[in-house]
Amino acid sequence: MRLVIQGRALSVAHLTHIHRLIGGNTQFMQIGEYAYYLPIHSPEIDAVQSFCAAQQIDCAIVPNTQVLTKFGLCVMDMDSTLISIECIDEIADMMGIKPQIAEITEAAMRGELDFAASLTKRVGLLKGLDESALQTVVDERLKLNPGVKEWIAVCQANNIKTMVVSGGFTFFANHVKAMLGLDYAVANVLEIVDGKLTGKIVGDIVDAQRKADELVQWRDALGLSATQTIAIGDGANDLKMMNVAAVGIAYHAKPVVQAQAMYALNHVGVDGAIYLLTA
Questions:
Q1: Which residues are catalytic?
Q2: Which domains, and CATH codes, for the chain?
Q3: Residues with Cβ < 8 Å from 180, sequence gap 6 or more?
Q4: What does the alpha-carbon distance between residue 17 and residue 253 come to, in Å, rounded to a whole number?
Q5: CA distance linking residue 87 with residue 182, whole number of Å
Q6: This prediction's pTM
Q7: 77 phi and psi, to 5 degrees?
Q8: Are 77 and 15 in contact (CB under 8 A)?
């Protein structure tokens, strides 16, 4: 096993203190500008976890079998994971109803509302909006989260197929797919008639179960085993997907997701996944 420590706040003093808490003779190995790992024998690191949380540093115990070269597929959420916004909230802002929509979105991501029902309600409130508003969101508000490009580049260098599976919309997911050179994209289709949103979704909603099903489908199509998959997300609707993956990573996630994910990145970018899986 290895103890992975990372964060911009990380200092030599932090590493020295953590080393004292762990004990042993081995030294930290630097694997990134703000990332280190330490070979350890015991998974008991409660004191280290408490210290790191207080110092705004990410830490994780990672089995030595989990390294980038062992994986073949990474499935990722889009809104608030690959990109910094919730697209539906920004669309709603074009109608002056962002606070109402954002409140429902936040509750759904915390797992307090049924995702499909909440999405149907939110999309219904967008009825009549000109479809040009979608492009405005892309042009003016859609930004990648820190470290996303670096993570995707490392995946591609290691022949890991990349996929975005979003409870958002194809207009944005396809844009992100093209921007990053991802292999696959799955999302909801907004119904548009005569250049305006109808307030409806075409076809089945991409909910938590659909996300998990897509991971399994593409895993099997690629001839991969369950041990060769990674999932990254931030909301409660990502948990099923993360649970069927060998490695589930919560990125700046809601508490319910952090509590159930294998690993949590709270203080670094998406590229923190690189160092979790580097030995």
A1: 77, 79
A2: 1-64 (3.30.70.260), 66-279 (3.40.50.1000)
A3: 82, 144, 148, 149, 152, 162
A4: 27
A5: 19
A6: 0.94
A7: -70, 165
A8: no
